[in-house]
Amino acid sequence: MPKIEEKAWDPKFEYQIARKWEENELYKFTVDARKHAYVIDTPPPYPSGRPWHIGAAAHYSQIDMIARTGRMSGNNVFFPIGIDRNGLPVEIYTEKKYKVRMREMDREKFLNLCRSALDELEKEMIQIMKSLGLSGNFQTYYRTDSNEFRQMTQNTFLALWKQGLIYSANRPNNYCVDCGTTIADAEIGYEERRTRLIHIRFKVKGTSEEIVIASTRPELLCACQCVIVNPNDLRYREVHDKTLILPIFNREIKLIKHQLADPEFGTGAVMVCSYGDKNDVQLFRELGLEEIVAINEKGEMSDCAGPYSNLKIKQARDRIIEDLRKFGFLEKEEFIIHRTPICERSKTPVEIVPMQDYYLKQLDFVPKLRNFAHELNFHPEMHRKILLDWLDAVAIDWPISRRRFYGTEIPIWYCKSCEYPNIPDPGKYYKPWKESPPFDNCKKCHSSHFVGEERTFDTWMDSSITPLFVTKYEDEPIFHSQTYPTRIRPQAKDIVRTWLFYTMLRCYQLTGKLAWSDVWIMGYGVDERGEKMSKSKGNTLDPYPIIAKYGADAFRYWSAAEANLGQDFRCSEQKVAEAQKFLTKLWNVGRFISSFEVIISPPQLTLATDEWILGELGKVISGCLRGYQDLNFFVPASLIREFTWNVFASHYLELIKARAYNSNDNDGYKSALYALHKCFSTILILLSPICPFITEKLWQELYSTKSIHLQSLPSDDNPYQEMCRYSNQIVEFNSMVWNKKKQTVSNETGKLLSLRDSIYIEIPSELQIFKGDLINMHNLKSKL
Ligand SMILES: [Zn+2]
Ligand SMILES: [Zn+2]
User: Fold this and answer.
1) Global pTM?
2) Cα–Cα distance measured from residue 575 to residue 559, given in angstroms and rounded to the nearest whole number
3) Ligand 2 centre from 448 Cα, in Å?
4) Ligand 2 centroid from CA 442, angstroms
5) Distance from the CA of 440 to the center of ligand 2, in angstroms?
6) In whole angstroms, what is the distance from residue 175 CA to residue 433 CA?
7) CB-based contacts of 680, cutoff 8 Å, min separation 6
8) Per-residue pLDDT tens for 575-626?
9) Ligand with smallest separation from the Cα of 448
10) Predicted confidence (pLDDT) per residue in 109-155, tens digit
11) How many angstroms separate the CA atoms of 299 and 401, rounded?
12) What does the alpha-carbon distance between residue 138 and residue 28 come to, in Å, rounded to a whole number?
């Protein structure tokens, strides 16, 4: 009789199991003075709307596998849980949800709305993370908008300020007119967009000649300070260094030779305006041109745009094209596909607008960070390249100030009489936009009147110190020294140039150390056809009902078995349902095995079949250990399934059934039951980081009252490795016998043989050592 009563694995068991883990504080972390902790720099997920991306749920499942692998490899694992609550997507979500406009309402009220929107989303995310079986530190989960976190963001900013690494500068910078703020290069994406290319006639001064200039930004005509042509472009040889008359505005500008002009684009003659693109910025600097600010921070044309001032960019463009046509300056217009820089958050084309912003120095640190990029262990190795490529592309310091509300405030008060920026002492969370300064007089002129800074930090200023926050940097020196540097940063591929890069930078500037030794980067979750999932395409999947229906283990098993680490992985309910079939098989095998006495101490193995399966098991163990070492869970997930289903259950269990039921055959019986349970208990241990629930339940039913999650991964010495050479022959022989029975008509009954019927088949000489078990399994009769 099977000891396990439940006929099938029910995902509802998961809830009770999780509750027991919680009661027993199974995953509790305490620092151990003798052993540097294995700290996971868990990405705090970002609640920016619902449902949560199914790919993200898969991502967090696997981060939990990292934690469990770490523990079972003998490490003291700290797996913090946090929620990232700062920034723009939250503001946008709040504006939509409550139908308000951030800049049109009281700041304090808006912040409160953001907070309550976040609380709701956060509750859901925590619930999903828990239902996935995450073994993280939920009791003390942190929020990046808490006073403690924001205080650390401000403290570390003040420290860098004192090191002289922060400066303020008015520079043309990427600016999103929809978000109303400066953004960093790292936050820009590119899209191929259809746009109008306008060919405009410019008069050459003092002649009747004209030249034609093509531009996608005719509304910037008012800010045009010269025209360039390539020195090798023979079409313009006659007009080099001549003066042109700007259409509509009637201003004189120079035509200059410059290598940056691409003879292939448009007519080969290019307007240089402040600022159409990065080339313009470079040319203004290089040629010492006087900047004309054409677009203001609201995304409207400024006064210098004359008749077009106060119009939105798009309106101004339409209007000026109309006028160019009306006044005879329009040569032609055509449509082209243009690689357009866009804001990654709002998808708005990025403008380049001069703004006064704070910058954190990063250019000086790139060589050091490049060394770090080579030192880090990347899982998988191929993703190191994303970081190295970005390090090659870093071209300016990091603009860190943002004109937004829901973020950590920049802790500065400006003196009203001399404008000197006064900074407070670290140690408190400051809100200068609504609080008076913690000092009475200006450090420079002793005036006592101040204005508080209204801007906030780029949210990456907060998230780039997660390794410091979770290790209690400057708060608890002993805790910090035993946990920092941390062990591993798991993260998504699309935030290498932001989160990974900025964390390396900031932690190095503050501690002089690399924040982790390992980086683990997963691919994207895509739909069944391999396409990116997005709300606009309508191909997103809510993970929550899927987890509720099939259970966390099925979900986790799917996530591990779907793709090698780093590859994009396909998501569908069907795939999770498929994964559940393996759990059903595992349960059935476990239930069947639970009929047999557990023999733990190894007896003399009397039969070759038992040595063979232990040899095969050893092979699986070493394969799994390699997978776990690389933190590539695809490897153990695939190996365990293949072994359990296609070797252990299909062949071994059939081979030893007769012995397992015959307790009179003392040696053969004990040998079989030992190998049987050795295999199954090892499978459970090997699978437990991936499927923590079903393995826990089977383990406790069969082997111990203690949790399986206190076990270590098995060692990979394999004394029976030699026996694996028989595997193919055993499988082939068994299949051959099964097929033959299916095709043979019985002399006695006239029907096809059943698998239990006897048959005359000679056992090949190489398999003679398995003779007894093969005869019993197939009911073989010898011809004699
Ligand atoms: Zn934007
Ligand atoms: Zn002053």
Assistant:
1) 0.89
2) 9
3) 8
4) 5
5) 11
6) 22
7) 589, 590, 593, 648, 702
8) 999 999 999 999 999 999 999 999 887 777 778 999 999 999 999 999 999 9
9) 2
10) 999 999 999 999 999 999 999 999 999 999 999 999 999 999 999 99
11) 18
12) 10
